[in-house]
Structure formats: structure tokens, C-alpha cells
Amino acid sequence: MGVLMLLLITITGIAAVSGYIHERQINRKIASGEGTKVPDIIVEQEECNACRPAAGTTGCGLDCILQKATTAVIYYDDEELDRFKERPSDSYTEEEIAEFREILYTCPESDVPGWNRSLELRGIHVPDQLKDELYLLINDQTKR
């Protein structure tokens, strides 16, 4: 355990010294006129498509949370699923899973992300056994 702690401290020290040396080199270049400013670090992020198909947004995270509070629930001829509100996703019987599966596969593919969003807004958890299938269908839709 002591060896691991020593190794961690050593790696942290090396990283700190490297960062300090790099910062000094940049400051010297700026002082000598070779550079005009500290270079910007640009981190590209992939755009999340989780909300876009259902609600027309391009954001994620906070946008989805805010949207949940203001978006009207759209039903996909699945009002009978409301009885599963707040039920844990691992507690469904095979018959109940079959109900979800029937709606999932009779729903047009373009409506699947919206149907999933509708379930989320209504507090209905998709059965664990269907999550992989649902994810694949939504992922296919958001890539189109």
C-alpha cells in the first residue's frame, strides 16, 4: 500500500513540475514577442440528440431537465401504461413486459424517441428487459 501511495505522489509531482515548466515556456514566448497570448484550449463536444427528436431541441442535460417541467405529455395510444407510474424497472412480470413490447414495436420508428420521452415525463420506467432494444431503436433514429 505504501508503494502505491509513493507512486501516486511521484506521478502527481511529475505532472505538477511538467505543468510548471510548460507554463514558463509559454510565458517566455509571450514576453519575447513570439506569442501574443496563452493558447486557447478547445474541447469539442458531440451534440447530444436525446431530446431533439421528441421536442425539437439541440441541447442536453439542463435543457432536458427544464424541458421536462414545461413539456406537455403526448400519449401514443398507451394510456394503459399510466398504471405503472413510478414502478421500478426491474419489477415487471412477463405479461407486463409484453404490453410494453407490443406498444414499442407497433409504434412507428420515428415516434420511438418521442414515446420514450413521453414515458419519462409520465414517470413510467421502461422494463429492464426492453431497455437495450429501446436504446438501439432510439440510437438508430437519432443518427438519421
Write up this protein:
The chain is elongated. The protein has 2 domains: 1-44, no CATH class; 52-143, no CATH class. It has helices spanning 2-32, 52-55, 62-70, 94-106, 112-121, 128-143. The termini are far apart. Helices cover 58% and strands 0% of the residues. It contains 6 helices and no strands. The chain is mostly helical.
Short description:
By secondary structure, this protein is mainly α.
Structural key phrases:
single chain, 6 helices, 2 domains, mainly alpha, 0% strand
Shape: elongated
Number of domains: 2
* SSE class: mainly alpha
Largest sheet: none
Q: Work out the helicity level.
A: 55-70%
Average pLDDT, all residues: 80
| Residues in β-strands, percent | under 5%
How are the secondary structure elements laid out?
Blueprint lengths: L1 H31 L19 H4 L6 H9 L23 H13 L5 H10 L6 H16 L1
